[in-house]
Amino acid sequence: MAATRNVMRAVRVFEFGGPEVLKLQSDVLVPVPKENQVLIKVHACGVNPVETYIRSGTYARKPALPYTPGSDVAGVIESVGEHVTAFKKGDRVFTLETLSGGYAEYAVAAANRVYPLSDKLDFRQGAAIGVPYFTAYRALFQKGCAKAGESVLVHGASGGVGLAACQIARACGLKVLGTAGTEEGMNMILRNGAHHAFNHRDPNYTEKIKACTGPGGVNIIIEMLSNVNLDTDLQLLSCAGRVMVVGCRGRIEINPRDTMSRESSIVGVSLLLATEEERHECATAVLDGIEAGWLKPVVGLEYPLEKVAKAHEDIICSSGARGKMVLLV
């Protein structure tokens, strides 16, 4: 559909609720880029768990209704607003955020949240970069203060953020341990940087992790499901170890004494709170990783826009992640 028709297909949310509130409409106005903004013809858009929390109305940040979800798009610049010099029509790009929403045929984004997409990667991979890789880098280095030679356990390593964390940590000289819920997931994380993989459905998997790390414990844990794992995580840490809380779907009871005995830390991670300088640092690391060849996004399940409700259902309820979920536009 040409942008000159002024309307496009886009997913709209008119009320907070379950996946059924995601409505695909075919008569949504194509947004116009303003000053320091670009309009992108979307080819693919990543689906992130946080988008399901926002849609349900349970997240701290609630957008004004109606809205279009989606932040991680990959596509081609359609037009640019005033004062944009870094991009031109026809450039391949990916985004960290959008202003108008990414579950659509076109999306407007601030030019400083848009990055060039290497010819080494396709659009599906481009849609798997933004939130996963920036979050993983922030968790490991900006908040976790990871250093080469340390050990990191990526708890839930076969999803988008988990695989990103494995790739980045391995490239930066850490000893990488990862968990997944299936044999396929374990093999995937081993192919993407993990030195050791564990099945978190195995009742004895924590003992196997302890045997692997030895009495010293693990220095950093990247935690995707803290409401399930945090209590156990605190018992796996080294002295001065730290748990980076990337994902949470509820409450959990812990024993604070576990932090005292190791002087360990629990640190929340939110990409939304990154400063401009921190985002720039993330972007530099990511673009360098793509150029060097070790940053290779793994695309998992793919859905057309018509199946967006199924995508939101599956990202929460499926029995084991295998890469980054994307919508194909």
Largest sheet: 7 strands, mixed
Give the terminus-to-terminus CA distance: 11 Å
Number of strands: 15
- Quaternary organisation: single chain
Poorly predicted segments:
none
Listing every helix as H and every strand as E from the N terminus to the C terminus, the arrangement reads EEEHEEEEHHEHEHEHEHEHEHEHE
Q: What structural category characterises the helix and strand content?
A: alpha/beta
Helix content: 25-40%
Q: What is the average per-residue confidence, as pLDDT, rounded to a whole number?
A: 96
The general outline is globular
**How large, in whole angstroms, is the Cα Rg?**
20 Å
Which percent range describes the beta-strand content? 25-35%
The number of helical segments is 10
